[in-house]
Amino acid sequence: MNMAQKKNRTLFWVLAVLIIVLAAIFAIQNSAATEINFLFVEVKGPLFLVIVIVFILGFLLGRIFHWLPKKKKAE
Fold first, then answer.
1. Can you say how many angstroms the Cα of residue 9 is from the centroid of all Cα atoms in its chain?
2. In the chain, helix, strand, coil percent, each to 5?
């Protein structure tokens, strides 16, 4: 393993630990129970879980729309 690969691996682990720590702080600070109502469904859970689920759904919807074929503009 060369020096550049070692630096990349170290940077990866530093960033991974930083993200995990920030996620833990986020979860602790947003642990209050919240209630979500959608049509006839009512769900109660911690706020951080609701935010994470909405973020994941938004990401997945973005990927789905990215994969859909795009119409070509007529020139």
1. 22
2. 65, 15, 20
